Amino acid sequence: MRIAVLTSGGDSPGMNAAIRAVVRRGIANNSEVYGIYHGYKGLLNGDFVQMTAGSVGDIIQRGGTILRSSRCDEFKSEEGQLKGIEQLKQREIQGLIVIGGDGSFMGAKKLWDKGFLTVGVPGTIDNDIASTDVTLGFDTAVNTVLDSIDRIRDTATSHERTFVIEVMGRDRGDIALWAGLTGGAESILIPEIEVDMQDIVKRLQQGYDRGKKHSIIIVSEGVSSGAKVAEALKEETGFDTRVTVLGHVQRGGSPTAFDRMLGSRLGAKAVDLILAGDGGKMVGMNKNRVVSVDFENVFNKELKINQDMYNVSKTLSI
Ligand code: ADP
Ligand code: F6P
């Protein structure tokens, strides 16, 4: 069988491990595997290359994606999708694996609906995809944020300052919640829970009265900018406050063991589905088991924050 793989949308650490798994699992099953550069843009432009087992050597430890990524408006149109299928058929490619986020999966589902065999691998640092316990790159991003929190805590302690740290996640608060809880942040602001500024001020003040001289507040970008939160806190408390926006630092770096494992397992499973002709699905994790779910269950299911984890963070951050 001839299979193709592309990466699309925001890159995430572990995508290379997934590409490696797709290529080597495919070759091990007597398939030819093509890489498509620059996501859907490359699909439309015919930017294909045949991969060998050696072409994915020395990449499991690297962040980013060797196939590059893009956002492509042309692919959102029906005309664009038909052009994409034409490019695949011209090369006698029978199956496509899309590594990306929910936007990329919407594109993948359109191909499937038009009769092309397509499977998705959830790759995004945001952990904002339903029907999988975790997405590729999330663990690395959390650890990157955690490392920054630890460093900032050092200087916050020395200078007895309050620090507001803005983290990524789009509309999802998981990066903030996981890094905030494991980094011992005093307050964690996430889009899923209504922000009560007075409560945050009260907690800061209580901490200060008990002798605490520094504080870390984690703000998920889906709530507000770190700068605005810092301004409001400074006005209310008068504390010496600084802001750090971690930005794209969170998207890069060598993937953790967890993300390398995840990329390897999900990539291999995606090939198995393609070889079985079982498309229109995303591969994911459920209680440490690799599973596959219909794209419908990815788009139509509500994503909930782990309320218990949030409650624990509130209790511990006194
Ligand atoms: P992510 O996959 O990380 O969520 P985006 O939302 O930017 O990133 O989507 C990546 C790409 O997927 C888009 O640039 C576009 O080419 C394609 N895409 C997104 N939404 C759709 C859609 N509704 N129909 C077809 N293609 C889409
Ligand atoms: O979806 C991943 C992500 O890093 C989000 O956390 C962030 O909001 C967005 O992408 C940034 O996108 P860009 O790289 O286009 O600035």
Number of domains: 2
- Main sheet attributes: strand count, strand direction, barrel closure: 7 strands, mixed
* Terminal CA distance: 58 Å
Classification by helices and strands: alpha/beta
**CATH fold annotation of the largest domain:** Rossmann fold
Give the tally of β-strands.
11
Q: Which small compounds were modeled alongside the protein?
A: adenosine-5'-diphosphate, 6-O-phosphono-beta-D-fructofuranose
Task: Examine the secondary-structure arrangement and name the CATH architecture of the largest domain.
Answer: 3-Layer(aba) Sandwich
The percent of residues in helical segments reads 40-55%
- Tell me the strand order in the biggest sheet: 3-2-1-4-5-10-11
Low-pLDDT windows of residues: none
Q: Helix-strand pattern, N to C?
A: EHEHEHEHEHEHEHEHEHEEHH
Q: Gyration radius, to the nearest Å?
A: 22 Å
CATH class of the largest domain: Alpha Beta
Overall pLDDT, averaged?
97
- Indicate the proportion of strand residues: 15-25%
Characterize the overall form. Answer: elongated
